[in-house]
Write the structure tokens for this entry.
Amino acid sequence: ISELGLSEKFFYLCPKTSIFYKGKISQFDSPLSLLTFPHLNLSDKLRTGLVTFYLKSINKWKSFENITASDWLKKYYGSNPYQILWKPLLKSKFGDKADKISMSWFWARIKKRSTKLGYLEGGFQVLIDKLVEKIKQNGGQIHLDSEIKNFNDLNHQSKFERLIITTPAQQFFKKMTVPEMLGAINLILILKEKFLTDGTYWLNINEPGFPFVAVVEHTNFIDPKHYGGNHLLYVGGYYPQNHRYFKMTKEQIFKEFLPYLQKINPNSQLLITNYYLFRNQSAQPVIPVNYSKLIPSHQTPVSGVYLSNMQQVYPWDRGINYAIELGNKIATLVHKNR
């Protein structure tokens, strides 16, 4: 951010995170909100607080690699907190793979969780635009809508000396053993009024049977004045790559999601003025036990071709900050091997 001269546009805020469970929204983002959470008894609350503090305080995560999150969480948090807090999130994110997810993944989510979130004034498109500007200033070229169908050993071609692939590995290397991927759906709703009227920014859906994992009211984080007075709501979930949602129209998905949105806010349909659908069939790596053994190498079997993608971000969850870190790492490697 500072290298690109964007420091003055970058800021931190402390948005509200809550859980939707048994038809009610309950804040769940601080020790105090844990103590007032209505669905756990005092013993469960104290145990949850102590175990969470332990996870945030330790740095050695490799001991978590060979145990599943479900086994560890049931053992140390206890059955009731696991069933109410953690099982719904694992299940809604990873589906039938939930019981295979490594505890190292869960530890990283707790370790890096903060009440503060960083954002750029104008959105992260500002970051992309500045990167494009710097690339062009340094003589780089950007070719959009340019499909690569196949390639051979690039050392014997004149067009490119090196190639860095940032797509999922299986899209290029059919014979490589690579991590499995899940797809994601994000339905963005344009509203004329607030949807989460209590001010919640991020709402985790812990209610069984919902077709999405989270409802995020972006304009409870960033003022609606930046969006023409509109309120923006993201409704998202993770699904197998062959899920029917990837073949459905946005109208069909909206129709399927709407009854569940009305369980959160009965006036949902009256608030919505427009909606957009975004989806990607390779949005989230599945993180089983001993995931480090599955991570594809940056140096591929093809000479001169490198791989840099979210499947290599571990144990942390993918995000813009880790993408930048990975970009620096692969650039250093390519420069070193010139």
Summary: The mean pLDDT is 92. The domain at 30-112 is CATH 1.10.3110 (protoporphyrinogen ix oxidase, domain 3).
